[in-house]
# Entry
Amino acid sequence: MAEVTEQQILDALKRVVDTERDEDIVALGMVKGLQIKGGHVAVAIEVDAQRGPKMEPMRKQAEKVVHGLPGVVSATVVLTAERKGGNGGQPAGQPARPQGQAHAPGHGHGHAQPELLPGVRSIIAVASGKGGVGKSTVAVNLALALAAIGRKVGILDSDIYGPSMPRMMGIVGQPSSRDGKPLDALENFGVKCMSIGFMVDEESPIIWRGPMVQSAIEQMMRDVHWGDLDVMVVDMPPGTGDAQLTLAQKVPLTGAVIVSTPQDIALLDARKGLNMFRKVDVPVFGIVENMSYFNCPKCGHRTEIFSHGGAHKEADRLGVDFLGEIPLDIAIRETSDSGQPIVVARPDSAHAKAYLAIAQRVWDKIERLTAAEAQAAGPRIVVQ
Ligand code: ADP
# Structure
C-alpha cells in the first residue's frame, strides 16, 4: 500500500474543528509537527496551555481521522503548548498530581485512570541524570537478564533523544497491526519490544515536550498487544526535565533503577534522578555504576579511570541500594551495537553474570513490593 502523504493527513485534519474558535485546526495553524514513518503518523497540535485539559476530545478526534486514512498503521496526536509565565511550571494539559496522591507500589493501584497495561505485573524505569552514561545498554541487558532468570519481559524504549532499542535488540522492521486491531509488539530473544524509534523519524526530530512524550508512551502501552508480562522495563529519556518528570508521574512505575558513571556520581547528576523519583513517590531500587573500571582487552589489566567505588559510597550516603557495577569494556559496546547484547551473546561471561546478578536483585525487590502490596490490599473478594 502506498504510504500516506502529508497532504492527505492535513486534508483529514481539516475535519477537526476548534469549537471555541469555530474554525478547523489546519486553518488556525495549530498543526505543528507532522511526521510519517512507515505508516506511523505523529502529529503535534499546539494549544493554549490554559485550554489544554479541555482539548482532549479534539485530540482524540484528530487521532481518529488520521488513523482512519488508508496506509496509516498508528496515529499519535499530542497536544503541545508554548510554556509561558504563569503556567505554574506544569507541562501543558497536565494537572499537578494532588498532594499526597502517591504511586502505590505495583502496577495501576491508586490511579483514577483505567489501567494502561492490564496484563503487566510490574513496570520499572531505567533512568539517568544525563545522556551517554550507558542507560540504554543497562536497560537492554537488564531486560534480557530478567528473561534469562525465567521472567516474561517487555522493553519499552521511550528515549526520545536516541531510541536505540531496535538496533540493540537486533530488530528490523516496523510493528504491524492486524485489521485495525492494536499493534503487535516486536520480539527478539524472547523479549517483547516497542520503541519510540518505530514511531518517529530520527532524521527530523520534533521538539518533545513532557505531554507529548507522555502521549506517545501511553499509545505504546495502550495500543500494543503486550500480552502477560512479569515485568516491563522502560528505557527513560536521559535527564530530569519535564518529559522525564511527566513520565515518572504518569506511568504506574513499580520502581526505578538509576544508571550512572563514577564521574556522573561525582557531579551529582545521579542525585537529580534519584530526587525526581522521590518527588513523585516512585521507589528507587538502587544505582548501577556503569563504566565502573576499564578492562584492557589486550592484557586483561584492570584500570580504574575514574575513582572506582564512588557510586557504592554515594549510594550508601543517599540511602539507596547499590545494585552492581559494570566495567567499561569494548565487548559490551560491540555486542549491543551489533544487536546481540552481551547477556545473550556471551551468557557465561563475567559481564553477563554481573547483569544477571543485578536482574536478580531487581526482581527480588519487585517481588517484595508486590507481596507487600497484596498483603496491604487484603484478600480479594470478587462479586459476580
Ligand atoms: P545512554 O542510554 O545513557 O545515552 P547508551 O547505552 O546508548 O547510553 O551508551 C552510550 C555508548 O556507550 C554506546 O555506544 C554503548 O555501546 C556504550 N557503552 C555503554 N555501556 C558500556 C560499557 N559498560 N562498556 C563499553 N561501552 C559501553
Notes: Confidence is low (pLDDT under 50) at residues 83-114, 380-384. The pocket of adenosine-5'-diphosphate is lined by residues 128, 131-137, 162, 164, 238, 290-291, 326, 328-329, 332-333, 336-337 (CB under 6 Å).
